[in-house]
Design goal:
α5 runs antiparallel to α6 and α7 crosses α8. β4 and β5 form a beta hairpin. The protein has three domains: about 110 residues, PAS domain (Beta-Lactamase, 2-Layer Sandwich), CATH 3.30.450; about 190 residues, Response regulator (Rossmann fold); about 150 residues, Histidine kinase-like ATPase, C-terminal domain (Heat Shock Protein 90), CATH 3.30.565. It contains 15 helices and 18 strands. The chain has a six-stranded antiparallel β-sheet, with helices on both faces. The N and C termini lie far apart (about 110 Å). By secondary structure, the protein is α/β, with parallel strands linked by helices. About 35% of the residues are buried.
Amino acid sequence: MAASALPDLASLILDNLPLGLWVADAKGELLYANAEFQEIMGMGARDDVAVGGYAEPYGICDRDGQPYPESRMPFVQAMQARTTVVVDDIVIHRRDGRRVNVRATARPQLDASGAVQSVVIAFFDITREVEAERARAHSESQQRHTQRLEALGKLAGGIAHDFNNLLAGIKMLASHVRLGEEDPARLSSLRYIDDITDRGAELTRALLRFAQKESNHPRAVDFDAVIRDTVELAQRTIDRRIEVIADLGAPGATILGHRPQVEQVVMNLVVNARDAIPGAGRLILRTRSDGDHVVLEVEDTGTGIEPRVMARLFEPYVTTKDVGPLKGTGLGLAMVYGIVQSHDGTVEVAHTGPRGTIMRVRLPRAPPGTAVEAVAVVPARLRGGAGTILFADDEPLMCEAARRGLRGLGYEVVTAEDGARAVEIYQRERERISAVVLDVAMPNMGGVEAMEQLRLLDPTVRVLFTTGLTLGTDAAALAAGAHALLPKPYDLGALSEALERLLAPH
């Protein structure tokens, strides 16, 4: 090959390297740049820039989008270190809008005396690598978030179970004390105790919904009716400086779910939006159809959600109301998350900023022809009875409350601390035992296993399941041999009605 062809060949090779080359003298003035450098930068190399002025002309930024500090430029670091330097946090903001992540390797060229003659910098496009790492980190973050929510759900479910046991014991004892009581003041106090336990039961239901351990047999719910009723209630109860508006764009839409739970979702979103508005403002509930789903957006003109709260927004006991009379428990959005998830829907922050937030919920439509849910609540009444009841529960308070309350209604009561003990007692005394009440979740032996053992001893045994975790297993409970399931917390009236039905002639 002729010597005259060598410079052209070298230039051809350098221009086709899969990396950008940029060479400058010791003053930082351009000596050479190849074609790939121009491709990465989105512009040709400039000979009118030097040390201290690289960032703005080339659009060199850090990963936060800020101009890259001149003191950290690869050329400057290589000059100072007098050895090879690698920098991988550079992002080129090209004039065509493209963002290129770059790894720069700067190598100083020294003369015989050790002085820097020039610096050669190789630029590698690592955009795909960075995006892949971001995607992996995001996936891992989402996985950790899911695992944390699952762990919190298990904790919430356990707390709710134990708390329901305590509430049930209190309600039972209050019912027992109310028997024969004629003093108006005492009766009023007992009713107040009942109201308090009912409020406590709402708290445990919120925890169970977050834990997704409450039974959920969905029916058709008139979604527009829920929105209208919620708006009407909000207009009567919310600060009159806040305008509450319904914008219903999905007329006649029905969704699958339980109306009380759906009402809780909507009301909690409304309350959350109300609390975000400091003074006068507007709150809009907007619905629309989206294929097989109905979408609800609750928009407020509040102050937005702080970044520190966003990542943990749907976790229990995380609240944006830190101080003052509106300080919250942090269960509202956690309950919303749990209910929506259990209904195969989604909930997200569609927008948030200093001028307001939009929360968006998507719920599946009910199939055509599904009957709309109608809920009728009939208060339980105390029913007298006779016979011996074997009552098994690992909570001593429940056993004692059942003993006192049922004896006051005419029953004899034998108690057991777990399923194994209940089986043992029934084996010994089954001739006099009329029915068995079993808690589903007990140590040593739970209610379902105890039921199986009892069925082996006596296929005709009459069993009532109770549980502080309505596990969605009403059908499973019946399949195991139980005749009914009574969720906690229940009062003496509910227990007596359940026993009356259980002991009725078949």
